[in-house]
Design brief:
Layout lengths: L1 H10 L3 H6 L54 E7 L6 H15 L3 E7 L8 H10 L6 E4 L6 H5 L13 H6 L2 H6 L8 E3 L3 E2 L2 E5 H6 L10 H14 L3 E3 L7 H15 L1 H8 L7 H14 L12 H9 L3 E5 L3 H8 L9 E5 L9 E2 L2 E3 L7 H11 L2 H11 L14 H13 L15 H17 L2 H11 L1
Helix pairs in contact: 3-16, 10-11, 10-12, 12-19, 18-19
Length: 463
């Protein structure tokens, strides 16, 4: 049931809202969020005894501690996230730098749980939250990933405290919807990644006389991988199988490339069996692709794989555009001349979105600092600092795009021109975590045995 409303939400994440710009969206309908209480004051008050003004450099641009009770003691803000890989660390640091400029008195405790696509974060966060010892905030996908927390009332409604008029007016409607899966606004989205990208090393393709823009559909890509394998020494498709999410997301892109987004919505709505042949066909093709991945695929992370592409030892990478964040942090590896990207074959016009957000767990150890951080994460300044480095575009419509560079400017244009922005399964927004983990188990097995029958059954059972 919620799947249906979710797809409606996603359809609303359209270019109109970007084009409309800020201001005109000030009255966007998100009724029903302002009636419940929960202003974040149910935990300890965050005064953790640390008294020093921690070496702030005197930039006192703090804009007033709204809601503060007058205490001026430094507070600690613990953040759990997984941004430690290729370039993501830099984006995260840029975000913290901006926050520190506005709130030099807040001491940040950085607590990473490394692992692509949050593969290690769930256990850490869930145990902490269930034990009543949550961090101040943590990284999580908006949409369905939030529901185990909202079901148990473990996230504060920040619809009044953080989501003021200004912020509501500036965000894309569809993104706001994802931040309130159960009615209350509980998350602050900070970015929009695109998932359906096919990145490539330009000179590797040139040397092999391959033109990526000529590949029309997922089957066509297989032909190119075969050619690269036969005629070059490079790895045709640099893909990791250490953790199952990359194969799951590749299957999503193949499926959308072959079938289109309506069928994809049917699948994430849980009706897998009416599309049995189509689901199997995407699995078949995925199995064929897996013939052309690195020997060490089972022991590398996504960014280690991407290093192989940067070094010129691999041709293609299917990955979210966080991969582009890694290219910008690599020395002398330039967009256009050294790397480029086409939408995954068959998915032009689709901007499959992957969004990250931060939340306010109840029983919060630092309510005031958490609120300040969430306010900041929702600001123009934060999104302007974070996204160009991260390889994503902002969910606010009023962020100046001048510093986003050629690649992200093109992605932004693609987003504005896209027909649809379906959510990703492998990145939590599309399906509830229980379904996602069952699918991950299925694709972990598939990485090993490439058994289409078993994988098909696994997908049916997962839903
Ligand atoms: C996604 C996340 C991205 C990026 C990626 C790779 O789930 O939304 O921001 O971190 O995983 O780890």
């Amino acid at each position: 049931m919620s799947h249906d409303s979710r797809s409606d939400d996603d359809d609303r994440l359209t270019r109109r809202h970007y084009v409309a710009g800020a201001g005109t969206l000030a009255t966007v309908g998100i009724a029903g969020c302002s009636d419940s209480g929960g202003d974040g004051s149910d935990g300890s008050d965050g005064s953790d005894g640390s008294d020093g003004s921690d070496g702030s450099d005197g930039s006192d641009g703090s804009d007033g501690s709204d809601g503060s009770d007058g205490g001026d003691s430094a507070s600690e803000l613990e953040i759990i996230h997984w941004w430690t890989a290729g370039g993501e660390q830099d984006a995260y640091q840029a975000l913290l730098d901006g926050f520190r400029e506005e709130h030099p008195d807040v001491e940040i405790t950085d607590n990473p749980a490394p692992g692509g696509a949050g593969s290690a974060i769930d256990t850490v966060v869930q145990n902490r939250v269930i034990d009543g010892n949550p961090p101040s905030t943590f990284q999580i996908w908006p949409g369905q990933a939030l529901t185990p927390y909202t079901d148990e009332g473990l996230l504060e409604d920040i619809g009044d405290s953080v989501w003021d008029e200004e912020m509501r007016g500036a965000y894309l409607d569809g993104v706001i919807d994802l931040a309130q899966p159960a009615g209350d606004l509980v998350a602050v989205p900070i970015n929009i990644h695109r998932l359906n990208n096919l990145f490539f090393n330009v000179s590797v393709l040139d040397d092999a006389d391959v033109d990526a823009t000529d590949i029309d559909d997922p089957q066509g890509l297989l032909g190119v991988l075969e050619t690269l394998d036969a005629e070059t020494d490079v790895t045709p498709l640099v893909h990791q199988t250490q953790s199952p999410w990359s194969s799951l997301q590749l299957w999503e892109s193949i499926f959308i490339g072959q079938q289109g987004v309506d069928d994809y919505q049917t699948v994430i709505g849980g009706d897998v069996s009416s599309l049995e042949d189509e689901v199997r066909s995407a699995l078949d093709l995925l199995a064929s692709y897996l013939e052309y991945i690195p020997e060490d695929a089972g022991s590398i992370s996504w960014d280690q794989g991407n290093d192989q592409l940067i070094e010129g030892n691999a041709a293609f990478l299917h990955q979210g555009d966080w991969a582009a964040g890694q290219y910008s942090s690599a020395d002398g590896f330039e967009f256009g001349s050294d790397w480029d990207m086409v939408p995954f074959p068959g998915t032009t016009g689709v901007y499959q979105s992957v969004i990250d957000s931060f939340v306010f767990p109840t029983n919060n150890p630092s309510p005031e600092a958490t609120e300040q951080f969430l306010n900041y994460a929702g600001s123009v300044d934060a999104q302007e600092r974070f996204n160009p480095i991260k390889g994503s575009i902002p969910p606010r419509t009023d962020v100046p795009m001048d510093e986003f560079g050629d690649f992200l400017s093109r992605q932004f244009e693609d987003f504005q021109n896209s027909n649809t922005q379906p959510p990703a399964i492998a990145h939590g927004t599309a399906v509830a975590p229980a379904i996602q983990s069952a699918l991950e188990e299925t694709f972990a097995n598939f990485n090993e045995n490439r058994d289409v029958d078993a994988a098909y059954q696994g997908i049916v059972d997962a839903f």
